[in-house]
Design brief:
The protein has helices spanning 15-20, 25-28, 37-50, 55-62, 64-67, 108-117, 135-138, 141-147, 157-168, 241-258, 278-286, 299-325, and strands at 72-75, 78-80, 89-91, 97-100, 125-129, 152-156, 184-186, 191-194, 197-203, 212-220, 223-229, 265-268. By secondary structure, it is α/β, with parallel strands linked by helices. Bound molecules: zinc ion. Zinc ion (ZN) is lined by residues 1, 132, 134, 207, 232.
Amino acid sequence: MPQQPRHLFASTLCTALLALAGGHAAAQDPLTTRCESAPIAALFKTFGDTGRMPPDLGRFLQNAALQKIEPYKAFDNVHYVGICWVSAWLITSPKGHVLIDTLYGPFTEPMLDHIRQLGFDPKDIRQVVITHGHFDHAGGAARLKAALPQARFAMTAEGWREAAEAAAQTVGRPNEWAMIDKDMVLADAQVLQVGDVKLQAFETPGHTMGTASFAFDAFDGGRRHRAFTVGGLGLNAIKGPEQVEAFIASLQRIRKLTEDGSDPVTTHLTTHAFSNGLTEAKELIKGRKPGDPHPLVDPKGFREQLDALQAGAEKRLAAERAKKTN
Ligand SMILES: [Zn+2]
């Protein structure tokens, strides 16, 4: 979600951060969390509001042990192979798999182990799609390209440009990463087919102007659900009012997909688990009894999340417009 953290090593604690964390700084120290959504979301809100990485959040993001999440089967053909704060989704079929996003740095190689742990061969991944060019989603592309020579990599045209630019900005820094050369370029509404997986790409500019989102089927026993991964959720990389306007238009477009009478999107498989309580909801999968509804199928919750994102974006739009006229 964020751009490369710029204040990762800052040492001062921000009082607003403490207030957002609930007023009990010690008890709410995110380093002691077990990846609970609320404190992480609060710290990211501070990051978005201030443009500065809260030190607690920086430490949390750098703590590899706290980022580790056991991979799990979310649906019969959809598996979570991400870390605590960033998702990666593996959509499987007997004739080949699709991977959404690459993780980064120390987390991409363990993701391949997680895929094996779930019973799949990473070499059967034919397609990697990348939501946008920030390091947390695209940073592992080079490692994956080396490990999966048979896989194609796809982003929007602007996404490829953004990823190259973001990687270039890290040259010579401790957090340096390299982006792969441009491979497939996604067009809006394009459907990619890999084995039995059909994945539809949408250009959803806003979080970055090159952000893509994806729709696909998720199967649960005999039931099919329309799932959607929103490619970018935060307003932390905004460069002006036009970008916020694009973000709002994308949110409205996605909301319409949840209202599609013939085949509505009902399930948000997010790029950041803390953004919609996925971390907690996934625990409900374990205790589910036959006949229980699937805990991740929640069209109302998805619409509420989109509405909340839009409300935040409208506030930000007013602020960006004011900034521009001042
Ligand atoms: Zn991002």
